[in-house]
Amino acid sequence: MADLTRAFVVAGLLALTGCASSTPDALYGLTTPTGEQLRGRTTSRQVLVPEPRALQSLDTSSIAVVDAGPVYTYFPKAAWTDTLPKVVQAKLVQALENTGGLRGVGLPGEGLLIDYQLQTDLRAFELRIDGAERAVVEVMARLVNDRNGRTRASRVFRAEVPASGTDVRKAVEAMNVAADRVVREMTAWVLTKV
């Protein structure tokens, strides 16, 4: 019995060691445009921002690198600060709040009386290396009237930004620039539609 217990303890320690070795050395976040960059009209509407949908290749905390195919790989020992959909959701909420143009912006479960939902799908959020190295961010957005479920408007937002290198820092810098462009366009679009 003691040998069986020891075997379980050793197996548990080996599993923990394996987990520790896969821990990233660095966590990366996304910047958010400031209020001055996001000014628009003011409305009394409130907007809910659910977590974006994404395929498994982007529904992860790993930072994606895409070669021709497309073939997805990920930067070793580096990760987003949370899963990418949650990081993008937080960026969208902050950006909409920074506009000062909405009465309220919230996440599911926060108890706001919602007028619209900003539903999003992450289509691309990666460093592309199938030619010129570039960050590609593409998000499909839908504004849905929360009272009747009708889509008010939908649009695809996309930005490509050249990367100054293929190391993780340069890739994340380029992804931040591309994401900022997408978020600025999306927040301006939301304010004109709600």
From TrEMBL:
Gene3D superfamilies: ABC-type transport auxiliary lipoprotein component (3.40.50.10610). Keywords: Signal. It comes from the Bacteria. Residues 1-22 form the signal peptide. Coiled coil: none annotated. SUPFAM superfamilies: XCC0632-like. Transmembrane segments: none annotated. Residues 28-186 form the ABC-type transport auxiliary lipoprotein component domain. This is Membrane integrity-associated transporter subunit PqiC.
